[in-house]
Amino acid sequence: MFIKLTRSGGHSYLQLVESFRNEQGKPRQRNVATLGRLDETGGSVDALLNSPLRAKGLPACSAAAPQVAFESALALGDVWALDQLWKELGFDSLHRVFRKARYTTPVEHAIRVMVFNRLCDPESKLGVLRWLQTVSIPDVDVAGLTHQHLLRSMDALMDHPKGVDEVITGLLRPLVDQDLSLVFYDLTTISAAGLSEQKDDVRQYGMSKEGLIARQFMLGVVQTAEGLPIYHEVFDGNQAESPTLLPTLNKVLARFAHIKRLIVVADRGLLSLDNMDELAKIKLRDGNALEFILAVPGRRYGEFADVLAALQAKASTATQEIIDQVRWQGVRLVVAHHPERAKEQTVLRRERIAALQEKADQWAGKLDGQDVGVKARGRKLSDSGAKARLYHAVCDAHLARIVKVDLKSELFSYTVDEAALAQAELMDGKLLLVTNVADLTPVEVVQRYKALADIERGFRVLKSEIEIAPVYHRLPERIRAHAMLCFMALIVYRVMRQRLKLANSDLSPEKALAQLRRIQRHRVSINQAAPISGISTINTQQAGVLAALNLKKPTEQAQPSLL
Description:
Blueprint: E1 2-8, E2 11-21, E3 27-37, H1 44-55, E4 68-70, E5 74-75, H2 77-89, H3 94-98, H4 107-120, H5 125-132, H6 147-159, H7 161-172, E6 182-191, E7 204-207, E8 213-224, E9 229-236, H8 245-255, E10 263-266, H9 273-281, E11 291-295, H10 305-316, E12 322-328, E13 331-337, H11 339-371, H12 383-396, E14 403-405, E15 414-416, H13 418-427, E16 430-435, H14 442-450, H15 452-455, H16 457-463, H17 476-502, H18 509-516, E17 520-526, E18 532-535, H19 540-548
């Protein structure tokens, strides 16, 4: 049955009409009842129309203009994607770690919120609460979440290190191939704010990667060749790099005992003869030896002068990169020489030396003029002053081994050590690697090491997109918890990057999230009825991002119709 509006004699009539089939099976309609003229029925028609709606518990309609109220739209797409990845990887299993402890709020939810914030819009812990007002995270009740809840959740991470480590290691294990051949290990410095002193403080003054003395802590990260981070550790800010290598590798092997082969690739600061001897003693579970590719620090190139001199004849005539190897200390020493880079380094060094000589000659001329009574512009110069100025200039140019200022002499004097200059030029354009890997060619050894440059982007992600620094926490455990949150965020980031790469997408994870962020959740209420929510239309680009990430589209529970 349905209500039909008909016109007759200039008036409109409401009729209740029934559809049926006659004896021949043809559809027909018959008038069941006439409800009356539309212009004379008053409120009876509205009452008639609204009665079925009321029976179903739906809001009544009205002839009057509806009162529509819109709530502020909330970003959904980016946090939806992160939430799907979070659950797919198994991070939501963290709730089991904290289940037995009595916390006022779900700790895993608070951790999830802080990790997502680092990927979407990195903020302070107070800023996280402001950010939560602009997003709609699925299955997370953020009502009542306070600053203290976030801090206590960070404490919970550090109060249950074994359980948290088991969860993260467990979710990473399926992502790490049994035949894993390469892991990259490196350290970076993370700046820390504050002047207070704490017990066991990890914030110490040391030389940062930017070349400045700063209060900081060290962060060591182990990553696979695909850039997946599998282990991290926080060290004191004045910790030397070399002693961290062996303990870190032992912890990695303990967590991923299924690995059949492991080649460690590390940068220059991690090489020492002691390390090489100890590395050679490490065995995997099946008895295979640990293998390594380590770069020789530039300060130690002088120890290889004889070796490099033997290769110099070939290097001096090269027009493109050449790679050779020799035996050294029982291991392979692989030498790569890049002629163009060597030329650039040589020219730049000679230009810096020439600039220093020009300054020195000016000061020497001024001193000589003063001795014979010639007046010059500016303050009077002394021999000790000229020596100090030149010495500082030489040190700033990192040329103290070549340009030598005689600080003991009463008179201003300096020399250019031609032998030291020749040795420095011998090292130009060269990369020295030591390795015990037997089945890689010298070219492959160099390629494996150069892949470290891509892995170092993980640190740039930590410092740029994830914004791990500066750290304003004072307590050592809070700093470790902050590093853990950033480590989790880096895992999710790298998984996103891998999926986008496999899908041949040219989007970075941050650009992909920016596209998805435009998918929003909207809520509207009509005539003060219960609000109805919905999701903005997903365009082609956003659907493509979700497909590349292998994630389903956001959905909304069925809502009653507004009509």
